Amino acid sequence: MTEAHKTWIELCEAAEGIEDEFEALEFLLGEFWTHLEAAEADSRFRDEVPAFAAEIKSMFNAWQLTKFLDEAGPAAPIDTSNFDDDESDPDEVEEMLREDARQVAQDRQLVERSRRWLLDDRS
User: In degrees to the nearest 10, what's the CA dihedral of 114, 118, 121, 123?
Assistant: First the structure.
């Protein structure tokens, strides 16, 4: 199957080959997040989300999904103490902080969307 929006099938098969369940879950949810992002702009991906989510739910227990999603989240914010006040361009630093805040918000949204797709009907 070469249709990009259906690669989730091959990804699930690949995850089954990963011995460590946590690594398999981490791999697969990373790919699920990529799929969710693609689904925002492409209805072919959007149409596949329910089936992809169902397959993930069939592969992992609710407690595994819950634990992973509870621990998942955005990377630590930029450490502003690394900037030298004399050498750093304030406009560049401000833009980096804004971009970092956007990325943190985007990451949180992906985790919450994943939670709704993977856990809401199990609660």
Answer: -90
